[in-house]
UniProtKB/TrEMBL annotation:
One of its GO terms (cellular component) is cell outer membrane. This is RagB/SusD family nutrient uptake outer membrane protein. It is found in: Cell outer membrane. Its main location: membrane.
């Protein structure tokens, strides 16, 4: 569980009330005499981690529900994730789109405030290593949020320091290349200045290993074919750069694949050797746990199995796609820890459910649906290995034997027979099963250029409701929230197709 006590938005004066604009919900965090001690800076960077609290829920709705892993057209179509799943062109007014924009820029502005104050008053931190660490943490968090946003929205307003709401009114959207330049610079600094690990009360902070892992993913994503002129893929062919970083993580010998797949997600085994970095939550019914497990399950199941309300209502259940379920071979040991396939509701009816329960342990449920005491694994070691295989298959140095060995290690843990001459399509199919419910599928399809062909073939096969639209290049990124367009007409242009 998170030991660094991240949810410090309650510390009034660190990053207080919003301005008038949702464009960048920020405040002048230093006006009340804060940032005058070393502890002030530590509290402030902890408050920046707090903005990640609901970030995994965004991954569920914007990534997993967008992919061929989830089929949720909805009965009435009133849930945000139904519209996202159906590729509607009216998404600009959704609360989910608005909230992810605001939450990400809130985090970016908190990071920027820490960085500004370090430059102005960082001398109060007598330990140079601690000062560099706090700067590295702020840049890591800023880069993580900007990387997610560039994948979701394409061009973005580029904030490298604290700005007031009135100043934000003159800052338009910068090209994706410029956003990436800041992301890469931030992650390079974080990789060079953050420790490889922490102990005690600092467990859960950003590490150099996490920075290298995300930077590798940045290079992988930039390298993908440019299907959208303002999308996250630039065709840069930087697979070699990604591979070098992945090998640094691998050769650190700090991580390993666990023998038992289910043990990776065990509430009693957090921080295991598989986890490179996770978003952490506090346990004990303190009201600062995770919400993301609630984003997966049926409300009808919760009424019987949990002491609190929550979950997806009957008109908007997030069903696992039949195509995904049928992809698993008989005896695949990943099925049971990943899916719940039936349950009995409060009327005694057996429900043919199909939802993820990978992150749920009913015996550990917190005080309410916002309080699951389970960390979110943002980077797993198996992902590091499979990204290495992807780099090799995309032309980076390495051999077919290395690719086959990586995939067969994953299959062996799943109780499956080995394969040979693994192709990119074979690798992606194995990835899909390995990371089901971990919200990686959509981005992998985008960065490998497979997204249009795979998604449209899947819709033709799976969409019995007839509610899903054909996927076009415009759907690779989301619209700018409508309320952002309304703040100042002409400041931003809407992404095409919306």
């Amino acid at each position: 569980m998170r030991n660094i006590v991240p949810f410090l938005m309650l510390l009034l004066g660190i990053v207080g009330c919003e301005g008038d604009l949702d464009l960048a919900p920020i405040s002048d965090a230093g006006s009340n005499g804060f940032y005058n001690t070393e502890d002030d800076f530590i509290q402030a960077i902890n408050g920046t981690y707090e903005t990640l609290r609901f970030h995994p829920d965004r991954y569920v709705d914007l990534d997993e529900c967008r992919s061929d892993n989830i089929y949720t057209p909805g009965q009435s179509g009133v849930r945000d994730w139904n519209a996202i799943n159906n590729f509607q062109n009216t998404l600009a007014t959704l609360g989910t789109i608005r909230n992810v924009w605001n939450d990400c820029f809130n985090g970016i502005m908190r990071a920027n405030t820490v960085l500004d104050r370090l430059e102005e008053n960082g001398s109060v931190i007598s330990d140079a290593n601690l000062r560099a660490r706090i700067e590295g943490e702020a840049k890591f968090l800023r880069s993580l949020l900007y990387f997610d946003m560039v994948k979701w929205f394409g061009k973005l307003p580029l904030f490298e320091s604290f700005v007031t709401p009135s100043e934000a009114l003159s800052i338009g959207r910068s090209p994706v290349e410029d956003i990436y330049a800041l992301i890469i610079s931030d992650l390079e600094y974080a990789a060079a200045n953050l420790p490889a690990s922490y102990g005690g009360a600092d467990a859960g902070r950003a590490t150099s290993m996490a920075a290298k892992s995300i930077l590798a993913k940045v290079y992988l994503t930039r390298s993908g074919p440019e299907l959208h002129p303002d999308g996250p893929c630039l065709g840069t062919n930087e697979y070699g750069q990604a591979l070098d970083l992945l090998n640094e993580v691998i050769n650190s010998n700090r991580f390993e694949m666990l023998d038992d797949y289910a043990a990776i997600f065990d509430y009693n085994n957090e921080g295991n050797k598989e986890i490179v970095w996770d978003i952490q939550y506090i346990s004990g019914g303190l009201g600062v746990g995770a919400l993301f497990p609630t984003a997966y399950y049926d409300e009808a199941w919760a009424r019987v199995n949990l002491p609190f309300a929550g979950g997806n209502p009957g008109d908007g259940t997030k069903d696992i796609s039949e195509d995904l379920l049928s992809a698993y071979a008989a005896g695949d040991l990943r099925v049971e820890p990943t899916f719940l396939l039936d349950y009995t509701d409060d009327a005694g009816t057996l429900i043919d459910a199909q939802f993820y329960d990978k992150f749920m342990d009913v015996s550990k449920a917190g005080g309410d649906r916002f309080d699951w005491p389970i960390n979110y694994p943002l980077i797993r070691y198996t992902d590091i290995l499979m990204m290495k295989a992807e780099c090799i298959l995309q032309g980076a140095s390495g051999s077919q034997d290395e690719v086959d060995a990586i995939v067969n290690a994953v299959r062996q843990r799943a109780g499956l027979a080995p394969v040979s001459n693994v192709s990119l399509d074979m690798l992606l199919e194995e990835r899909r099963k390995e990371f089901a419910g971990e919200n990686t599928r959509w981005n992998v399809l985008v960065r490998t250029g497979k997204v249009l062909d795979v998604m449209n073939a899947w819709i033709a096969q799976e969409d019995a409701s007839g509610k899903m639209e054909q996927v076009t290049a415009n759907d690779i990124i989301y619209p700018i929230p409508q309320d952002q367009l309304d703040v100042k007409r002409g400041l931003y242009e809407q992404n095409p197709g919306y």
